[in-house]
Write a structure and sequence with these properties.
Amidase signature (AS) enzymes, nucleotide-binding, ATP binding, single chain, globular, binds glutamine, alpha/beta, 14 helices, eleven-stranded mixed beta sheet, AS_sf
Amino acid sequence: AVIAHKEKTEPAVHAYLSDSHEAALAVATKVDEKIANGETISPLAGIPGAIKDNICIKDQKATCASKMLENFVPPYNATVIEKLVSQDYVSLGKVNMDEFAMGGSTENSALAKTTNPWNADYVPGGSSGGSAAAVSAGSAVWALGSDTGGSIRQPGAYCGVVGLKPTYGNVSRYGLIAFASSLDQIGPVTRDVTDAAIVLNAITGHDHRDSTSIPGERPDYTQSLVSDVKGLKIGMPKEYFGDGINSEVREAIEKAAKTYEALGAQIVEVSLPTSKYALSAYYIIALAEASSNLARYDGVSYGLRVPADNLVEMSTKTRTQGFGPEVQRRILLGTYVLSSGYYDAYYLKALKARRLIKNEFDAAFENVDVLLTPTAPNTAFKFGEKINDPLSMYMEDICTTPVNLAGIPGISIPAGFASNGMPIGMQLLAPAMGEEVLLRAAYTFE
Ligand code: GLN
């Protein structure tokens, strides 16, 4: 049924870059047999999902929506895929994204244009735009995305679905093609909070292949699906409701706060003054790490190779033709902030700001259980509106990037609609490994 529905939505939405229907149907048949034999199956078994195209699945292309990796077929599974395979997961295919997860509208994809299922004139958000558009259109029941500075939560908000960025280290990054390794995290994009808990359960856990993976057992996150916020303290950081926030978005979040109050939660104003440095710190740290991570695409080991007379020319031509404009801009900026003479002024300074931002969140969570903010300052924008103005595109990340810098979990859930009919997302934040209270607060509102 989902494949049939997908066939109807895809011509307009174009969330997918490749499909794996045959493999999906084979697993579905196997699951049917298990059910017929009375075997217990996992909650995700046979439920059709979609995987962002920067997550490696053995023998399937992982393009990162880049010409550089257009024909790259990984010889191994990401840890999250290994886990899903053991639970009889079904994927209908790999979904579109901004090239190398760099962007906020999926317009940076070098391979396809994905539209917002609510209105095809609008972007689906990014970089996990394909994941959010597929779930929103119903061409996947759930999806995996990745979030470095908002790439699960912001497209979730723009497409009216749920997007969860887990705590840094909660979910293994092994097999996720790196953008900025100290910020990247894989997470679920789903229709509701219950599904987010189910998918998180399926992918969470310590992994010895990822040195930043958090050791220890994980709880059963579906136990947090409790509709009760009585006595919960919810902080609203005043800096997230300032001038840059669209008034309809602000009103929707304030209305959500009233709902929480009516349900017995206590709303308190908090202040996170260092947040104003987060966007700058993010765009220094993320780009510095990206310039280093993307050095591996040299035309030698794998990916695109443009032939030339000598090695340097080959590498130069390969990188010039293989990377799109945004990726090139980021490699240049990242190289600049790491170069001698500028390292202290930019990179080191950004690292210090990052620590202060984290300390400020830690202090806030001594007084409140969760924080409530908008997910993005605006609702989805139209194609072409920001693509030629990188700074205005980056501004859409002001509410999400502090969260990655601090390593804490965040979830975006639907919070109504703007007058133009586009969905509004609200963001809830919790302390590191506080996914349980996060899910409870989100579930109660929903
Ligand atoms: N929009 C942000 C950026 O362009 C976030 C991207 C992401 O989370 N992968 O860097």
